[in-house]
Amino acid sequence: QRFSNLPTYLPASPHVSNADVFFFLKEANQDIMRNSSLQSRVDSFFLYKANQPPVLNATYGPFSVEQPIPLDLMLTSASFGFTNKFTFNWKLKSHIINSSIYSNKPKIQTLFYIAGRDWEDYDPEEMLPCVKMFAFLESREVVASCRLTGHLGLCVVELELSPSWFSSPPPLLSEETASLEGITVELFYKIYAADGECSPEDARWENNIHAGEENDHQALSAME
């Protein structure tokens, strides 16, 4: 009589429902004894695309069980917590159109858009969130807003700076240094409920758009 060298394991069959695309994963050099039990089993999976909350199913012979996957384990965005849509993998991204601005054209334009959304189920009557952007330099502040709209869920915020932003460098910079290197301006944005106005009462801080970082928020270089 021959015996197998493989450990005993629970032959349950896992499956994910309500997900358009998902993958079960196997770790490289996985410990062969990891699932050597008839009482429990561990499997890793990756959700790539889902339009509604997914459910994990497991079957073993005539028995089956299912459980919704907790939202805190998925890439749902807190920024869209006020919508009734399932916001799996949604991200609000930004791109500053011109990284340097000049006194003869003192406008900062930033494109905001929703990434990760399945636009096949787009409803033209659906109202998307409003975005408000702020620019700060010392005690000076300028604000503008736009509402995400259309099939691609995008809009452009345009901030126009007054001449005083260009008239003098900060105290720690000489005029010569400021003219060569420019002045760095910090940008922030807030996101508002889709059914609300762009008013401070409904707002919350979202992200600082940092200079010089390779991330979802493109850098604003020094003003020149």
TrEMBL record:
Domain Transmembrane protein TMEM132 second Ig-like: 91-223
Transmembrane regions listed in the UniProt entry: none
Superkingdom of source: Eukaryota
Entry keyword set: Membrane, Transmembrane
The UniProt record lists the keyword Transmembrane: yes
InterPro entries assigned to the protein according to its UniProt record, in alphabetical order: Ig_TMEM132_2nd, TMEM132, TMEM132_N
Listed Pfam families: Ig_TMEM132_2nd, TMEM132_N
Name this polypeptide is given: Transmembrane protein 132b
Annotated organism of origin: Sinosuthora webbiana
Name of the coding gene: TMEM132B
